[in-house]
Design brief:
By secondary structure, the chain is mainly alpha-helical. It contains 24 helices and two strands. The protein has a two-stranded antiparallel ribbon. Helix 4 packs across helix 18, helix 14 runs antiparallel to helix 15 and helix 19 packs across helix 22. InterPro entries: AA/rel_permease1 (IPR002293), AA_Transporter_AGT (IPR052962).
Length: 588
């Protein structure tokens, strides 16, 4: 599983060995499922059910349904874009082509921060799981790591980096085996606890001190980690330009892995939440740590508790490995586009000699990402809840942009039917509106950490090139080797469509308006009814989507995008002695 794209286009017929090697380097369905399911099934299923129940009670089930439906709509839009223009690192590259460098920088800041802090959150969850054997890893409040706990989390993050230094094909095998384990354990928990039975009156009982209704369910979507638990399905999309083309083709493999992972995770998470509610006495407070071990003990399923405890370490580890891996491809795309330091993806920083041969591992990117995640872990004191809330907000912001890109690039993508074009536009608008609504209903306390992380990322990506070109006293020399274009100067030409400044201004302005509406809804001087702000948020989202599409179309018409084209499915290689007519019939 290499993060570098193989050769694009056809391989000359006189070099069939090159074509076979190129195909072997590409990702199979199992590799893609390992990325998608491996990223989705992490610490979210272990810890989010209790947090969701603490916010919305029985209506936490609706939170999982809403989150799953939102992810499915977004996934359809992203898969449509990823199959029309398959590109490794496309979550940043494609907005760069449709809307310009400034919009791409905003997306890159959110994506990079999101992917970098995810291993930190998974490491915090692993430390939480380890606390069952090693006491003293959390302070008495249980919300912050002690020094010993912080050291353990740092060690777990270092393990994620170390495993990603393996040869790509070996990493793929390790990740696939971990993914199979991670999926089997929660499925086993659901089956066994359902078979053990529970008092159905507990499922629908109103729990003291928790909210209820649609408003509470919407708040739980972000605040409890529902969105966070669904994250990771986009892993195959991060490598859309590196998928096998023989047989069913790259498009079919991408759809199977993404849609299969989302639909499967919706069923799994809904089942886990029902099982959780069915075994939690209404008089009890929802536990902050994974409750399934206690439930298994209460149901006399002692033999399964070692598997659950082991999974509290392996499940977050697997998800952290996937995020650590896929971020290298996105950062390499940023580097090639001059949005960050170009030295991150040069050969000497992207390869290591292992076992006598050179492998692509982007070790410099891994070290930079480790530093970002470690600083985030330090700033929040190891709080899993703060990290996953910030991740969820950043995710929704990043996921809103592909819809704009898909519609804005429609004249430059392979031609499709008028009906499919209309469906794409409707789903793109719907995904933009829904992400705005989920952000609004998350509340200001959940929204601001993610926005602060996004602002910090934007300031770094836009500000470091300025520092590198200015001889500042004391610190100027530190940044002189930083090699990235100074895109921030494009804001001076915001009236010029080719600058790409206008779409970025509208995107940032939209986020500012949404933030103000959310802040007003959560303040004493705000709306008497939250639904007033919700309606205003829908109006703001609709206007922002329309303007972003129009301005991005204008930009793409003046700065013609350089887009990859999908490759038709290639016939499978003929085995010795096989009838070529049968192969043609099967592939045609």
């Amino acid at each position: 599983m290499s993060v570098r794209e193989p050769r694009s286009g056809g391989i000359p017929a006189e070099h069939p060995g090159d074509a076979d090697e190129d195909e072997r380097r590409r990702l199979s369905v199992f590799d893609l499922l390992g990325l998608a399911a491996g990223g989705v099934v992490g610490s979210g299923w272990l810890l989010s059910a209790s947090r969701a129940a603490g916010i919305a009670g029985f209506d936490a089930v609706w939170a999982w349904a809403i989150g799953g439906a939102l992810m499915l709509v977004i996934a359809i839009v992203m898969v449509e874009l990823g199959t029309a223009a398959p590109k490794t690192g496309g979550l940043v590259f494609l907005p760069l082509q449709s809307s310009g460098a400034l919009v791409a920088t905003v997306v890159a800041a959110g994506l990079w921060t999101l992917y970098a802090i995810n291993p930190a959150s998974e490491a915090a969850a692993m430390t939480d799981g380890l606390s069952a054997w090693v006491p003293g890893l959390f302070d008495p409040s249980g919300n912050a790591l002690t020094v010993e706990g912080f050291l353990w989390s740092t060690l777990f993050m270092a393990v994620m980096v170390a495993v990603n230094l393996l040869a790509p094909r070996l990493f793929a095998k390790v990740n696939f085996l971990l993914t199979v384990w991670k999926v089997l354990v929660p499925v086993l928990i659901v089956v066994l606890l359902l078979a053990a039975g529970f008092d159905t009156r507990w499922v629908t009982a109103q729990r003291p001190g928790v909210g209820h209704g649609l408003e509470a369910a919407l708040a739980a979507v972000v605040g409890s980690g529902v969105i966070y638990a669904y994250l990771g399905f986009q892993g195959p999309l991060d490598f859309a330009g590196n998928i096998r083309r023989r047989g069913v083709g790259e498009g079919a493999r991408l759809r199977w892995s993404v849609y299969g992972t989302i639909l499967g995770s919706i069923v799994l998470y809904l089942s886990l939440q029902v099982v959780f509610l069915g075994h939690l006495n209404p008089a009890q407070k929802a536990p902050q740590t994974s409750p399934y071990t206690q439930f298994a003990v209460a149901a006399s399923l002692l033999w399964v508790t070692p598997f659950i405890r082991l999974d509290t370490l392996l499940s977050p580890l697997g998800a952290g490995l996937v995020y650590t891996h896929v971020l290298t491809g996105e950062v390499a795309a940023l580097s090639r586009a001059h949005l960050t330091h170009r030295g991150l993806q040069v050969a000497r920083n992207a390869s290591l000699r292992l076992g006598g041969r050179l492998v692509d591992v982007y070790w410099m990117v891994l070290l930079v990402d480790f530093a970002i995640g470690w600083v985030a872990l330090l700033l929040v004191g190891g709080s899993w809840g703060t990290l996953i809330t910030a991740s969820s907000v950043l995710t929704l912001i990043v996921y809103a942009v592909p819809g704009v890109t898909l519609v804005a690039l429609r004249r430059h993508l392979p031609r499709v039917s008028g009906r499919r074009t209309t469906v794409r536009r409707v789903l793109a608008l719907l995904s933009f509106l829904l992400t705005g609504q989920v952000l609004y209903w998350a509340g200001w306390s959940a929204l601001w950490p993610g926005l602060a992380a996004l602002a910090a990322g934007c300031l770094l990506l836009l500000g470091l090139p300025m520092l590198a070109r200015r001889h500042l006293p004391l610190v100027g020399g530190w940044f002189r080797r930083y090699d990235a274009k100074e895109h921030v100067t494009r804001f001076r030409d915001w009236r010029t469509p080719s600058s790409g400044a206008a779409p970025a201004i509208w995107l940032l302005g939209y986020l500012a308006v949404l933030s103000l509406l959310t802040l007003a809804a959560n303040s004493r001087i705000g709306f008497r009814e939250h639904w007033v702000g919700s309606v205003l948020g829908v109006a703001a989202s609709g206007l922002a989507f329309h303007r972003l599409v129009v301005l991005s179309e204008d930009y793409a018409d003046r700065v013609r995008p350089s887009l990859p084209t999908p490759t038709p499915a290639l016939p499978r290689p003929r085995a010795a002695g096989e009838d070529p007519d049968r192969i043609s019939a099967a592939s045609g």
